[in-house]
Amino acid sequence: MGQAHGSDPRSTMSALLKSLVGASEKSARIAQLCRQEEALFQLLIEEKTGTDKNKKFVQDFKTLADVLIQEVIKHDVGKEFPELHGHICGEESNKFENSLGETLVVQVCATQRDTASLLFKILDRNQPAAELLAAAIHQEVALQDAALDAVALAIPPERLAIWIDPIDSTNQYIRGQASVAPIGGICPSGLRSALVLIGAYDRSSGDPVLGVINEPFFREDPLTHRWQGVYHWGVSYQGTSLCSLSRPPLRPEPSVVLSSSETPAIQRALRPLYGERLRFASGAGYKMLCVILGLAEAYVLSEGSTFKWDSCAPHAILRALGGGMVDLEAALQAWRAGQQGALPELTYSQPAGGAVGAERWANRGGLVAFMHREHLEVVLATLATAAL
Ligand code: 2IP
Ligand code: CA
């Protein structure tokens, strides 16, 4: 147990929740900084052409932003909770090769100066960029959140493990417009869908337990043009549910949110159910957030194109609000077999058999994120009889 938190397990657990929220806030600031500061934004959008294309590193600054954020979360949370060491994982590897062919390990160093000099090497001697990033990485984040302070929970951190998606919807993060008009409350594309996702799951059951979703690009201040973010959290553990949001109602005219690359067969099958309220949006985490906020009754995905780090945090929040996330293929199989009681939810501790690399952690059967069980049943009943 982290020494700083005394022996009361409830204070340890709320300290973990606070630590994850704090890490998401720092991550959001780094993400905002990379879009806001010219020295960093130029690196982010840089398209390599001609001979430069062969330079391995700089073309990957977008990946560096991801890796850095992931390392910051690992470092800050790991320092406070040594029992999580080796159990904080994410999408990215922290090894990089720079243009000189040196392999460098991206990490948070003991001091801001050391981090800046490591970044200086990684960033091909770009000092302004290295210093800006190092300052953001070593900045203290002070949370002022009475609701968070009031949380008392008893979940031993040594039973948990963590999935991080440092920036979900990377494409929109790099190229997304600052303001895209929402349709039915949902932004079809744009920066809004770039999110920081941090989820904790039970190491033995694989169930999602705790989730933090941070929206770094929630609103742009019209005067300063600076980004303002917002975060949401939820906990669901052994019958205890707590959330920063309240459960949205099931609307009489429900809507569904899909990936713009969802198959025509799924779109055809769902059209009669939703009519014009078939919505499209970028970002897997953002679509899950739309269900959490009650902007869509479901997010249906027929492909195995999301990963554990995409779904863990939103799934924990959905559960905290009485919703859930099922494996679409397995749920349809259960439904067709008449086993309609407990539908198979996604779990987070087991890699997919026979897969290699990132694929091991894909949600291979697709998914349905839902808030209301009765609505999930309507979706499954519709898809179970459709020609997919
Ligand atoms: C991606 C991102 C994509 C999503 C894909 C995720 O994560 O959220 O937007 O596809 O499933 O894995 P789509 O937008 O079609 O839903 P990342 O941006 O972190 O690679
Ligand atoms: Ca992702």
Q: What report would you give on this structure?
A:
- Helix 1 (9-36) runs antiparallel to helix 3, helix 1 runs antiparallel to helix 5 and helix 4 packs across helix 5 (127-137).
- By secondary structure, the protein is an alpha+beta fold.
- It has helices at 9-36, 38-45, 61-80, 112-122, 127-137, 146-149, 170-175, 264-274, 284-292, 308-320, 328-336, 373-384; strands at 88-90, 95-97, 103-105, 160-168, 195-202, 208-220, 227-237, 240-243, 256-258, 278-280, 298-301, 324-327, 367-370.
- It has a 6-stranded mixed sheet, sandwiched between helices. The protein has a 5-stranded mixed sheet with strand order 10-9-11-13-12, with helices on both faces.
- The protein contains 12 helices and 13 strands.
- Strand 6 and strand 7 (227-237) form a beta hairpin.
- The structure holds D-MYO-inositol-1,4-bisphosphate and calcium ion (CA).
- The site of calcium ion has 3 residues, from strand 4.
